[in-house]
Amino acid sequence: MRAVQIVELTGPDTALALSEVPDPSSPPEHPLSPGSGVLVEVHAAGVSFPEVLQTRGEYQLKPPLPFVPGSEIAGVLREAPEGAALRPGDRVAAFCALGGWAELAVAPEFLTFALAPQLDYAQGAGLILNYHTAYFALVLRGRLTEGETVLVHGAAGGVGTAALQVAKGLGARTIAVVSSEAKQKVAERAGADAVVRSDGPWKDEVREISSSSSSSSSGGGGVDLVLDPVGGDRFTDSIRSLRQGGRVVVVGFTAGSIPEVRVNRLLLSNTEVVGAGWGAYVMSKPDVTREIGAAISGLMDQGFIRPVVGARFPLSEAGAALKLLDEREATGKVVLEVDGAA
Predict the structure, then answer these.
(1) How far is residue 48 from each of residues 52, 152, 157, measured CA to CA in Å?
(2) Which of 5, 306, 333, 339 has an alpha carbon within 20 to 30 A of 320's alpha carbon?
(3) What does the alpha-carbon distance between residue 303 and residue 293 come to, in Å, rounded to a whole number?
(4) Contact present, 71 and 48 (Cβ < 8 Å)
(5) Rounded to 5, what percent of the chain is helix, strand, coil?
(6) Both 97 and 118 in a single domain?
(7) Are residues 95 and 149 in the same domain?
């Protein structure tokens, strides 16, 4: 089968090679899963920031070279263990952690879900990592409740658009932070109630916008929750944008630098900084993953969730797809489309 491999740790421009590799074994087994695996004929694969880091050897998951990256896929189920809810021939979306940039991929059975008929394969490839992360960060870690106000950084990206839609579905008011007019339009299409620009006085604008929020218990402006997949030098202002009792939920660091927290700010305003590492948490907790999947499915049925697909590339142009993310030019979910799936 055809697959994209990371063959050296030199960055998106030179680290990748399109190769012929052996098909996965049968029956499928997933090395990172505590349970049985399924085999999927891949039609679309998601492209995410961790793959950018993997091309430089900077991600926590460091398989020996060469290896096939790609953590999320959508396609047609080829093989499933006996007794599985899904059967061969079903359209599915799956999280495979590794191996997704190929014509065939193996995923854990508990991280494989039926692909709703209203979604195409490209949307399916943007469903699990982004939306499960958003739900995990907002609800399980951020304790979001109906009527609260959520500020989302990187709001035109894959995680950002997912967070806007999930938060709206849960009854929250949403404020998006973006860096350009084009990204503002994406965030608005994803359902943001208000949008501010990161190159302006966004903290002051956020406090003004949120001052009328019905969830305010302190009488002043500020949001209840900040979801931050960006990090970098705006982190301090994220803390300052919180109202009393607010929470910043850390999802990632696409800006490149990891911020530090002056904890006296947390003490004085009774605020929190919370980590949300979805993958590491759920890989050993199948029941939690199924609960999140059911919640996402319910929000989709209610019309709140429709994955926003941005640029689409053929498998052979995976490097260009990563470069788009690396240069922070991507909007929505960047996807690789697998022509002539095996």
Answers:
(1) 7, 18, 10
(2) 306
(3) 15
(4) yes
(5) 30, 25, 45
(6) yes
(7) no
Nearest to 153 by CA among 41, 229, 214, 100: 229
| Domain assignment present for 316 | yes
Is residue 267 domain-resident?
Answer: yes
User: Do 242 and 266 touch, CB atoms closer than 8 A?
Assistant: no
Beginning with the edge strand found earlier in the chain, give each strand of the sheet holding 149-152 in spatial order: 194-197, 173-178, 149-152, 223-228, 242-250, 272-275
Q: What's the one-letter identity of residue 281?
A: Y
Are 138 and 200 part of one and the same domain? yes
**Which residues span the domain enclosing 252?**
133-279
Q: Which of 279, 332, 339, 341 is nearest to 46 (CA)?
A: 332
Strands 91-95 and 16-20: unpaired
CA distances from 42 to 86, 93, 102, 177, 188 (A): 16, 9, 7, 33, 31
Q: Tens place of pLDDT for every residue, the chain, 342 residues?
A: 999 999 999 999 999 999 999 999 877 777 766 567 899 999 999 999 899 999 999 998 899 999 999 999 999 999 998 888 899 999 999 999 999 999 999 999 999 999 999 999 999 999 999 999 999 999 999 999 999 999 999 999 999 999 999 999 999 999 999 999 999 999 999 999 999 999 889 999 999 998 865 444 444 589 999 999 887 788 889 999 999 999 999 998 776 678 778 887 888 888 999 999 998 898 889 899 999 999 999 999 999 999 999 999 999 999 999 999 999 888 889 999 997 544
Distance of alpha carbon 183 from alpha carbon 156, whole angstroms: 5
User: In whole angstroms, what is the distance from residue 113 CA to residue 179 CA?
Assistant: 34
Q: Is residue 299 part of a domain?
A: no
